[in-house]
Amino acid sequence: MAKIRLTKNELKKQKDSLKRYKRYLPTLMLKKQQLQGEIRLTDLRLKELHSARENLDESFKRWIAVFGETGFFTKNILKITSLRTEQGNVAGVPIPIFKGADFEISRYDLARTPLWLDTAIDCMKQSLLLELEAQIVEEQRKRLDKELRTTTQRVNLFEKIKIPQALDNIKKIEVYLGDQQTASVVRGKIAKSGSSAERVKT
């Protein structure tokens, strides 16, 4: 730590810094709380999405045997052509917001394919949408986590280092300046009494 100068100017500088730290700290603490709240919401949303995906997979299981028996349902029958997102903002953090996705379905002969193929494609679409949204929410959480770490570091810096340091510096400077003032008064009195004694001798 750099040695502080024990002057009135330094005292003012330290007091100004302390005022600034105390003004910023509540804002940082509020931001930290907002981020923690948003992270809890993303965690809840992820649980909902994973649960919905599991439920869909359960209902999908009855189709698996049928899919295996025929060559109608292939992995190329449904393709994602675009992912739609918007830019959002949470506590000053830019985050992507899931808005949906567009799909391309390979052409198939309606007369020659079984009726269940349409249902299977719809189920696959729903499953993919849930997976894509979960990926976007994971990205949101990652960005919020990163900002929370930075904000927490700043809160700790102000709360545990900067504010106590400024208070300690102010105390040191005030004690030193007080001692200097006392010494100056004592020297003045000694000088005064000394000159009085000289006058008495003469």
Overview of the structural elements:
The protein has helices at 8-69, 116-201, and strands at 78-90, 93-105. By secondary structure, it is α+β, with helices and mostly antiparallel strands. A two-stranded antiparallel sheet has the order 1-2. A hairpin with a 2-residue loop joins strand 1 and strand 2. Helix 1 runs antiparallel to helix 2 (116-201). The longest helix is centred in the last third of the chain and has 86 residues, at 116-201. It is rod-shaped. The relative contact order is 0.15.
Please outline the helices and strands.
Blueprint lengths: L7 H62 L8 E13 L2 E13 L10 H86 L1
Helix pairs in contact: 1-2
- Rg is 36 Å
Low-confidence stretches: none
Q: What is the number of helices?
A: 2
Side-by-side strand order of the widest sheet? 1-2
Strand % is: 5-15%
Shape: rod-shaped
Order of helices and strands: HEEH
Kindly report how far apart the N and C termini lie. Answer: 56 Å
Briefly say what this structure is.
This protein is 73% helix and 13% strand.
What characteristics describe this protein?
single chain; 202 residues; two-stranded antiparallel ribbon; 73% helix; 2 helices; rod-shaped
